[in-house]
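Dear Dr. V.,

Thank you for agreeing to look over these. As mentioned in my earlier message, I'm a first-year student in the group and I'm still getting used to reading structure tokens, so any feedback on how I've presented them would be very welcome. I ran two proteins. I've put each sequence directly above its structure. The first is here:
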Amino acid sequence: MSQAPRAAAVSESPDLPQDLILLRNHIEDLPPEIREKLAPAMSRVVESTQRRRRILSLVQDALGQLRLDMKYLMFDLEATRRERDDYRSRLDRFS
């Protein structure tokens, strides 16, 4: 009886692969004694899949931020080089 709410939550979860949802549904159709043996393993697989998805999302966000930071740094570097060249040319004119 306690398996039904968890199973419903898993099948409604949009971040799970369709194959995992299908496997969960097939496990629910098994006899209770087999289902009870497979349920803990299935729960661990679901949890690890969700954890991997969260980690992947965090990594993608971090990479996006890194790319943006790199663009700003490259812009700053080019601006600094232009300023340096401008100051050198001014210094050369007065020397």
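The second protein is here, in the same arrangement:
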Amino acid sequence: MASMPAAEAVLRTEREDDPCAPERTPAAALPDPEPLLRNLTQGVLEVLAGVRDVHQLARWMTEDVFRSVSTRAALAARARSARGVTATRPVHSIRSVHHTMPADDAVEAVVVIGGPARTRAVALRLEGLDHRWRATSLALL
């Protein structure tokens, strides 16, 4: 019997223990991640601004990221309500996307966003799960 790499053995064991666990997908079997990084960042900004429903992005996020974005969107909605401000489309523009692949099935990225008052960044980690990229970590800095 041929020896399998340690990571493959771990993934195979996890999958055998829980057949419902997400299947890891290598980057070679997935599309270029940059369009998703741009679109997901834009979508999250729109969710936080109150002009997009977070459920529209659920397919591209893990449960933890979805919960985090949902919580932050609810807080933003409460803050807008307290100030008497209506939801409007964000006026941010994506300035640049920088990404690297620390593993065969993962992408870590920083998306730089320019706004009217300041420049911000969104840090994301995408992992190849169930034959598509999914955000497993997202932070708006």
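From my reading of the second output: Residues 63-83 form the longest helix (21 residues). The helical segments are 6-17, 34-49, 63-83. Does that match how you would interpret it?

Kind regards,
E.
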